[in-house]
């Protein structure tokens, strides 16, 4: 049995990674460690909750003393670190939370791993999950590669860049076995409705204005969340120690074009007359320091580890819309705040 710690497993991407590992690897004990901030929702994992190889630990990665004890108690062989504050707009409004969790929290995990493994690194791995936003903003051409210089421009991306640097520093200085991946924008089931796609979905459904920042000209590369989980699985098992891998969807969309496609899908799913939803599009004040374009070159991952995205965007977006339509309760629980009671019900009131 391997003991694997996944941090941030109650969040959007983390829950897909936890589910994949719990189901695919019954020989691994999967420990989901999460503080359950507003973004953490154990309902995301209701289907694996009772599996014998799944364990939940409610813990803040910023509290080192208890974190260290947890590492000693469970004797982790590997860590997949996803816990983070992840929303750019929140980082603009309140940067300190991001500095705290994303930088200090990551260093705490590095120290806890170093302390537990104590120079005996055989079979051990610290896998840090990061974002393409560390590379900054592209113009009309070019792609981010693993060697693109870091140029973060929001408090979120700057805090993630700092954490990447620290992870690499522990590799070079202490020989801690690490690997890092930097991924583009994810979409799919279970994404918190503050991010573009689920927010727009919810507003379209409720006939509310769809807020598009600036003129909607900014470009993002979108990857279906299960494709990201698949890439993480590959890198976890076959990635080379000390290396970085870019993960992307080869799928660039201008925000406005993405919203128009979403409106078209929603009109069809809700039996609305064609063109109804797009009348909700409302251009609003631009985000401060709004990065123009992200686009990622994932050739290294494709060539060295034989990974490629499997879900095409139109199909993935339609699947996502269907998931949100079929999981109204999940969305309503978030919007009402009820999802935060789930932990109490699952873990204390049974
Ligand atoms: P999310 O906000 O949905 O989930 C974050 C999770 O971390 C939540 O469950 C939250 O409770 C937990 N968490 C936050 N602070 C914590 C703390 N102090 N201690 C313990 N747990 C804490 O985020 P996400 O979108 O799933 O992103 C996961 C990771 O992937 C992040 O590291 C993010 O930077 C990275 N990433 C995200 C995207 C994307 O498009 N969402 C793209 C590339 C990389
Ligand atoms: P977001 O989902 O916040 O991801 P990120 O900022 O990490 O790329 O936003 C995706 C894009 O959509 C980004 O260019 C900002 C834009 N956006 C809007 O136009 N309106 C919105 O309400 C939100 C949340 C984002």
Describe the SSE topology.
Elements: E1 2-7, H1 12-24, E2 28-34, E3 54-58, H2 64-74, E4 78-81, H3 88-93, H4 95-117, E5 125-131, H5 155-174, E6 178-183, E7 185-187, H6 196-205, E8 210-213, E9 219-224, H7 225-238, E10 244-247, E11 252-254, H8 255-269, E12 281-284, H9 299-305, H10 313-326, H11 328-336, H12 342-347
Parallel strand pairs: 1-2, 1-4, 2-3, 4-5, 5-6, 6-10, 7-9, 8-12
Antiparallel strand pairs: 9-11
Helix pairs in contact: 1-7, 2-4, 4-5, 6-8, 8-10
Bound molecules: nicotinamide-adenine-dinucleotide (NAD) and thymidine-5'-diphosphate.
Nicotinamide-adenine-dinucleotide binds at residues 7-8, 10-14, 34-37, 39-40, 60-62, 82-86, 101, 105, 129, 131, 160, 183, 185-186, 192.
CATH superfamily of the domain at 2-188 and 224-250 and 294-311: NAD(P)-binding Rossmann-like Domain
Distinct small molecules: nicotinamide-adenine-dinucleotide, thymidine-5'-diphosphate
Portion of residues in beta strands equals 15-25%
CATH fold descriptor of the domain at 2-188 and 224-250 and 294-311:
Rossmann fold
Question: What is the number of E strands?
Answer: 12
What is the H/E order?
EHEEHEHHEHEEHEEHEEHEHHHH
Largest sheet: 7 strands, parallel
The CATH class name of the domain at 2-188 and 224-250 and 294-311 reads Alpha Beta
Gross morphology: globular
Helix count, per DSSP?
12
């Amino acid at each position: 049995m391997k003991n694997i710690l996944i941090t941030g497993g109650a969040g959007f991407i983390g829950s897909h990674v936890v589910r994949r590992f719990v189901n695919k690897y019954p020989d691994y004990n999967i420990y989901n460690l999460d503080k359950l901030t507003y973004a953490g929702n154990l309902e995301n994992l209701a289907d694996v909750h009772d599996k014998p190889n799944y364990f939940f630990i409610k813990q803040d990665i910023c509290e080192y003393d208890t974190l260290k004890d947890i590492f000693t108690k469970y004797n982790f062989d590997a860590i997949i670190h996803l816990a983070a504050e992840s929303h750019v707009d929140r980082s603009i409004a309140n940067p300190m939370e991001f500095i705290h969790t994303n930088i200090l929290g990551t260093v705490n995990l590095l120290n806890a791993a170093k302390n537990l493994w104590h120079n005996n690194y055989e079979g051990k791995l610290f896998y840090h999950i990061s974002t393409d936003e560390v590379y900054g903003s592209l113009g009309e051409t070019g792609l981010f590669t693993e060697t693109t210089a870091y140029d973060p421009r929001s408090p979120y991306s700057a805090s993630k860049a700092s954490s990447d640097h620290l992870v690499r520093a522990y590799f070079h200085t202490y020989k801690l076995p690490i690997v890092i991946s930097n991924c583009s924008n994810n979409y799919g089931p279970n994404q918190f409705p503050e991010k573009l796609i689920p927010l727009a979905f919810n507003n379209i459904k409720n006939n509310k204005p769809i807020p598009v920042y600036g003129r909607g000209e900014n470009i993002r590369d979108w990857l279906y969340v299960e494709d990201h989980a698949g890439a993480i699985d590959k890198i976890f098992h076959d990635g080379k120690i000390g290396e970085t891998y870019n993960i992307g969807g080869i799928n660039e969309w201008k925000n406005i074009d993405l919203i128009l496609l979403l409106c078209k899908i929603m009109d069809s799913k809700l039996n609305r007359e064609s063109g109804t939803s797009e009348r909700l599009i409302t251009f609003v004040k631009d985000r401060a320091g709004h990065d123009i374009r992200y686009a990622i070159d994932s050739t290294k991952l494709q060539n060295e580890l034989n990974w490629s995205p499997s879900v095409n965007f139109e199909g993935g977006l339609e699947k996502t819309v269907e998931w949100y339509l079929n999981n109204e309760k999940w969305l309503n629980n978030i919007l009402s705040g009820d999802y935060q009671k789930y932990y109490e019900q699952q873990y204390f009131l049974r």
